[in-house]
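pasting for ref. prot 1 ->
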Amino acid sequence: MALALLLACAAAAADDAKKEHDPQHDLVSLQAEASREVDNDQALAVLTAEARGDNPAALAEQVNARMAAALKAVKAVPAVRARSGGYRTNPTYSKGRVESWVVSQELRLESSDLPALAKLVGELQQSLLVQGMQLRLSPALRRSTEEALMAEAIAAFQARAELVRKAMKASRYGVRTMNIGTSGGLVVPLSQGLRGASLSAAPVALEAGTSTVQVSVSGTIQLEP
């Protein structure tokens, strides 16, 4: 009986020692961020050639002619890239019967030369509808900004880890896990006031503005005695 009690006490002491030195007790979760305001350097415009009437075939010819003329105008501006969007033929109903047809096709314009794009959109408004415009960071600028911010965010994470180490009087720390995430740099819509704009060849007013790019680093460090 005494031997069994002695063994039980020894086992309990061993469990307490194990818990005391359990690495999980020395883990600390941390997070750090780095962000930067960056001037938008790219604009995207979405325009539509649209025709309404009773004859779908005739409407399609009108839309095709307008789109061909628009693409010809775009080719004269090397700084602007064009991509044709969806082509749709939709009926409109009245009292359960087809009353007319709407034929439309989208044209997407993209450029890092904002003045050139604004001038071209102003000219195309005479035959196309402006559905909306967006300002954003180009993929190259966003990527280079994120890479610079990653270094800053990791340095901030390391600085916080060092503060924790000193506060906990640990001799050193090791990084157990690390996660890096990015956010921001979203497009800035400019559709308000542009949809159904007056038929004018004047350039659309564009102000590049800025986007906020943020990189966050979260992870776990292990303190060592």
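and prot 2 ->
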Amino acid sequence: METLTLKTLRKNKMPPSSHPVELLAPAGNFEKLKTAIHFGADAVYLSGQDFSLRNFSGNFSMDELEAAVSLGRSQGVKIYVACNIYSRNHEQDALRQYLKRLGKIRPDALIVADPAIFMAARELVPDIPLHISTQTNTTNYATADFWHRLGADRVISARELSLPEIQDIAARGGIAVEVFVHGAMCMAYSGRCLLSSFLAGRDSNRGRCAHPCRWSYAVVEEKRPGQYMPVIEDARGTYIFNARDLCMIDHIPALIESGVAALKIEGRMKGIHYVASTVKAYREAIDSYYRNPGSYHVRQDWADLLDSVNQRGYCTGFYFGDPTEIEPNLALTRKAYEHRLVGKILSARAPGQVVVDVRNRLETGETVEILSPFQPIQRRVIRPMVNLAGEPIRVAHAGHQVQMALEGDWQPNDVIRRRDAPSSGPRHR
């Protein structure tokens, strides 16, 4: 039987279009890169181990960056390398050396924010396209044109913009525009936050954010020491920092028709369950739009898939100018189920026989769900398993590799998850 590759799947499933919008996915390490490619990303953004805004996501060594670019090219997927810190004096020589090494690897673009890094890249690697990070807060078409005249190929719009403003930039800025479509939103202007520096000594503008905006806060009145009053919202205003997550799957037609070039999923620090779920949902949504723009609607399985990942309640951010969409969600409820990653398919040794890398306890007889690109989520019962020595086992634990019968035609990097009862305590929805 012919092995299905993502390139084959794309050829068969992707709708014809001269300029389809790009689905851009995050990857904090090589496993997440493979997951993003497997589930249908057109491009992936990642970074080396220095000079990016996600120092705690694992990231890629120089050898891994080279392998990532090679893998992307073999699958028809673009690889963008983030080099988007605001650099300091002592880093200038190291940055130039880093850019020279990236020039030999030749990623499809560099994502930059610091003008010094921009100018060094133009000098040292002039053939590599430059994308301007959202941290530069491009908020108008004149600024977009400024970057275009300097030689940039794309701007990532500021999160604070409405959809009409983005459309105007795309029409008049003379440069490709990328927008965020899903994921966490920073509570600070264009992500430039000082809270982490003050409270944890970790500079968010240097990739070391401790996310203090997501901590639980209380108020203590000076004359009542030890009496902690919860921070809440009332009619006078909001007093907590935690922003809801962005989700724009309902508005794929409006985004595509605005003229933007790319729809970007946030989350280089998230796990493979998040990457698989979000990329799968948005891949299918974008393809559905291109097949029949006039009848686009959000399928329930897409909504369920996005609801299954950890999130803080969804909103549409600043896109439609609705102030209620950027308020925190104070309605704390519990999910009916938690979705826990339990494994990843490593190989299919024969039809219906797979080798699984186990990530959480897996037991014979339990029901799991399998996420695979371009097909509905499938539910299966775990049949008797054997370890790689061929010995029967009833329970497999994290770190084990097992072989099992799993009815269906599966591929490496398909994700296996389980629906569990929720943990105690409230959850954001």
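Confidence is low (pLDDT under 50) at residues 1-18, 235-239, 424-429.
The chain has three domains: 6-185+243-330, 195-230, 338-428.
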